[in-house]
Amino acid sequence: MTLIQYAAGLVTVAALLAYLITRAYKIGLTLLATSPTPTGARFASGILRSFALGEDKFYCADGAPEAIATKRRAGMDALGASFNQQFAKSQKASETVLAGISDLRFTDTNRVPFPFQKLVREKLNVATLALSSEGPVIVDLDGNKSLDISGSYGVNVCGYDRYKEWMSAGLERTKALGPVLGPLHPIVGENLAMIKAVSKLDEVSFHMSGTEAIMCAVRLAAFNKRRKLVVCFAGAYHGWWDGVQPGPGNERKNTDVLCLKDMSPASLTAIRARASEIACVIVNPLQGFNPNSPPPNDMVLMTASIRKAASTQTLDTYAVWLKQIRQVCTECDVPLMFDEVYTGFRMAPGGAQEYYGVNADMVVYGKTLGGGMPVGVVCGKKELMRRFDPEHPLRVSYVIGTFAAHPLTMGTMNEFLRWVTSPAARTVYTTVGTQFDAWIGDTNAALEAASLPLKVHNLTTVWTIIFSQPGRYHWMFQYYLRAEGIALSWVGTGRLLISLDFTPEDFATVRAALLRAGKRMQDDGWWYLGTAENPITSGSISAGMGKEMAYHTLMKTIRDGLLAEILCLPEADGPRAPKAVPPTTLTGFYEEIMRRKADDHAASHSNCVNQFMHLISSTIFIYNYYTFWGNCTTTMVLGLFSLFLRQSGHAIFEPPCHDEEELLLGFNTRSKCFVVAGYTLAPLVTLLQLSGTYNFVQALEPVAKSWLWVTLFFVLGHTGLLWLQYGFRISMVWLVKLVTDPFTDVAAYYPSAVNVWSSPDWKTAGWDTFQSHLRGEPKHAAAAAKDKKIE
């Protein structure tokens, strides 16, 4: 090797090491800044299994006594009855709608935590069909008037009456053109000038929704910066596109999204380190209200600690945080993007940019900007909005939409923009904002005076309800509010909105509804805190939920696997599920054992030949109880012979009865096939492990031990599954029944020793009977097949 080759090799190795060290350093910084929540939540979503609490546990899931559960049940029934009367027409009409629109099935299902969903859907039908609006009041199909604090998912900033005016005026100004697409209506130019003035950016792109606009903005940033990574912050929502959704709800693995911790210096360090790879940093300014948490939703309101709202100090800190992000992005030449689909024109006439005093390189608008019509808008600096590469004509970013800049949408948008940029609009924002801030303080004082565990918090006209004590049923509050004439979205009390047409009377109506609903919910026992000896705390609730989820996940995983089939785990629900009520006294324990013995006899011990074979095998089993302690080999050999004799009576002579066996707690005929397979394979495996010096007698001892282990596996395994599903007492009922069966069988079947020789039951033996057992046929099917064969 020459000196030049040696030097080149050293330089190559050094360069490779430098690259690897630098790469490891950057990855380390990224890991320190990455939020574990999305990855953890996605991992959990693939493991956690769904389950529904029955009525016996629904009302006492927090450990409340029966007296409180009775009050809760009565409260739930009263609410359900009032809804059925109040929304009768809407409920009937919504049946067709729910059956045909998957979006509604999703939202209707996910109003409350999943263990409670089934019973809530059965008892509380809040489906409403709206016919008209009068100010902030919505009128439904039944004529009910509800004061709306849902804000139509963020669209209703200014008040429904204003949007109706704008929609009429917009149509009037553009109806002559109709739905002509391609050529632009001149009104687009007016909109362009006003949007650029509000956003303080160079160019605009029109779309049909906020999600579509986010998709466009991210693609344009990646295209023009020639980078692939997108940075977002924990908990922030940027629409349903999987490209910016790193947590649950997205099945695609995001390899180009860095989900960093909000308000963390480590995140700023990671952005600096990875700047050359980052296409853009997306911020949803509403996260200042609940940093590092997803949008609040009653569906995940498992306990009070899950929902929090930022304090005034936190909001001030968040404003500083946005300025720090702005500075880092400027220094590193990384585009900063504000997702103002929700906050645009709500936090201030100029959106979050105006509210926080921070200007972004790209801004995405939607919702209210359409003046009542669907819309999405991307604003950005000229160099970030380019959709083609002037140096490479075939390199383009193809982003376009059929209905972009639709004439009607442009007309309603123009009406909205002319209003929101007027001095009168600023006066309205200031007046209503001041009134709302005062209302928040007065309402919290009223709630405290009424000794209700509720508080309200706001960020401009966005607000939420916080629960100030532990509880597992806080999500019920949304239904009490609905009963008091308050309209909510499917997320319940998590994200609430007021519109700029709210009057002092409307604010007073909402406060009164909060107080009445809170009093009713308190009276119905949903906020019971236990006793001094047995208090209900956040810890006890979390522990209870953890046990529930772990138990149901384990049981469903077992049930879906082969182990449940091998060890014959009974059905948990439905007509095929055994009725298992744990005995509470020793007498009850004995009676339950004897009842199950009688049921077992009636189900699969009617054949005289089978009874005789059970008599012989039971006699051998009783003898084995004596020999077990002194001679395991003899015990297992005799026991195995006895077991095969016993099961042969079922499989060859007894009619199939798989349907009746499923209602028992023991092994059915199909699962007994696994038992036979286990006893057959065990000696084969054992013999393969032995050396050739063992003779037949010497081999019997290890083979007998293998049979013993198989026996323990099936008996203790089945007992364990029964314990998990039904509790310790029921599992002991089955185990004691199994151990004492030989004694009761001898007492019950000794007459067969005389009757068997003249019994016609010998004729039932046959290959067809055995096959019917293997297929797991019920009694009536086997009988019908037999009759058909005779014909």
Structural class: alpha/beta
- Percent range for helical residues? 55-70%
Poorly predicted regions: 781-791
Termini separation comes to 95 Å
Indicate the overall shape: globular
Tell me the fraction of residues in β-strands, as a range: 5-15%
Number of helices: 30
Mean pLDDT figure: 87
Number of strands: 16
Radius of gyration: 36 Å
**What strand order characterises the main sheet?**
4-10-9-8-7-5-6
Looking at how many chains there are and whether they match, the oligomeric state comes to single chain
Largest sheet: 7 strands, mixed
Report on the structure:
The protein is an alpha/beta fold and 791 residues long. It is 56% helix and 9% strand. It contains 30 helices and 16 strands. Helix 9 (187-199) packs across helix 15 (407-420) and helix 21 crosses helix 27. The chain starts with a helix and ends with a helix. The model is unreliable at 781-791 (pLDDT under 50).
Descriptors:
791 residues; alpha/beta; 7-stranded mixed beta sheet
Q: How are the SSEs placed, and which strands pair?
A:
Blueprint lengths: L2 H31 L3 H11 L7 H4 L7 H21 L1 H13 L1 H8 L4 H10 L6 E5 L2 E4 L4 E4 L11 H15 L12 H13 L3 E5 L2 H16 L3 E5 L23 E4 L4 H9 L4 E6 L28 H21 L3 E5 L10 H6 L5 E5 L9 E5 L1 H4 L2 E2 L2 E5 L10 H14 L2 H27 L4 E6 L2 E6 L9 H7 L2 E2 L8 E2 L6 H20 L14 H23 L1 H5 L19 H19 L3 H20 L4 H22 L4 H4 L7 H21 L6 H31 L1 H22 L2 H4 L11 H9 L3 H12 L1
Parallel strand pairs: 3-15, 5-6, 5-7, 7-8, 8-9
Antiparallel strand pairs: 1-2, 2-3, 4-10, 9-10, 11-12, 13-14, 14-16
Helix pairs in contact: 1-11, 5-6, 8-15, 9-15, 16-18, 17-18, 21-27, 22-23, 22-27, 23-25, 23-26, 25-26, 26-27
